[in-house]
Amino acid sequence: MKFKTQKIAYWFFLSALGLLALQIIYGFFMGFAHMGMDGLHDFIPFNTARAVHTNLLVFWLLLGFMGSAYYIIPEESQNELYSPKLAYIQLISFLAVGVTAIIAYHFNWWEGRKFLEIPRPLDYLVVVNVLAFLFNILMTLFKGKKQTTTALVLAMGLLFSALLYLPGMIWFDSQTLDSFYRWYVVHLWVEGVWELIMGGILAFLLIKITGVDREVIEKWLYVIVGLTFISGILGTGHHYYYIGAPSYWLWIGGIFSALEPLAFLAMALFALNMYRKGEKKHPNKAALNWTLGAAITSFVGAGLLGAAHTLPNVNLYTHGTLVTAMHAHMAFWGAYAMI
């Protein structure tokens, strides 16, 4: 650890691990309920458990991304974090908002929009919190001694993640319009800008672990960014098959969904290629294996399993089945949780 303020990241990671454990507990609640052992139904109905389970996923992943940024950005910019005090305030307030939302779900205070159930007043607090986080990160970059491609791609992913949260705050009376813009947030996060965050973190880890020249690794980042934007944006179309959108989304969604695995394939090849080129024998084998595992598992979960059921003629039969659940769980675990 080169800079004292990097230790702030540990508090974010510790909080994320605690919320991951809670998410798993609620996953067990749903699993037992699905098997008929639903003794907690009067206290935690299935729909409440599901909302908590999915929202905790988003919540702890965002904490992980923030912690990663607070660790990576100072080291990449060769500068202490702009405001450690602001980072701690931001962590405490973000946890307070998240815990309030989780409690609120148990009392039926939510918006009922999958992944974005958080009550509207808390939405505004999330926006303020994220703006404080971005201010801290961008000021650290601005005042740093250097700007690297790795840091810029990571910061770009975080900035776009914040901007793409805004369409989910627009209220529509039409269910079709509401679903249309809700997927701007959900899809363009997980199969768009979050891939930039993953790419930035992956590049940082590979630079540290393999010893491969930074210039070589960062050239791969440009490829990943390009593939992410080419396939991810219009790949949103595979969510529009059944919501009442125009029929042209069938072929747009089908074509670009078939291209989406390319970004994850590039990440897997990128990690394996850097590993083979690496001359540095890093003592932390676990970190190396987890880094490679994240790249490979994300390709299988998000890439292969995603492509296997997003073509319109196939999705007609797999939509809402366990195929969807397998893809979602393995994609999130490989692409974001492992990293």
What about the largest sheet?
Answer: none
Structural class: mainly alpha
Unreliable sequence segments? none
Q: Report the total helices.
A: 12
Oligomer: single chain
| Count of the domains | 2
Helix and strand pattern? HHHHHHHHHHHH
Task: Give an overview of the whole structure.
This protein has 339 residues and is mainly alpha-helical. It folds into two domains: 1-147; 194-339. It has helices at 8-34, 46-77, 84-105, 120-143, 149-165, 175-210, 214-232, 248-259, 261-277, 285-310, 312-318, 322-337. Helix 6 runs antiparallel to helix 7. The longest helix is centred in the middle third of the chain and has 36 residues, at 175-210. It is globular. It starts with 7 loop residues before the first helix and ends with a helix. The mean pLDDT is 90.
